[in-house]
Amino acid sequence: MSVCTDKCWTPIKCPDCGCSMPPAGRSAPFGSQCACSENYQHTAINTRHLWNEHDSDRIYRDPEGWAEHLKNCVLCAEG
Description:
Elements: E1 12-13, E2 20-21, H1 58-61, H2 63-72, H3 74-78
Antiparallel strand pairs: 1-2
């Protein structure tokens, strides 16, 4: 059974300004996020921890789901 779902890679908007917050615990390019999103980065508001559904860091929290994704994903197979 997969642990990760679309909530794990769906962008979350900052409640204060509406900018898209990067995944919790992930580095983002300088200037790509607003300062206020730091207030919500590691809270229940930000359920996102992957950049997208093809983010290989999924293997750390959901190895079975990642293996299933790799079996069925044409984009990752081309990798």
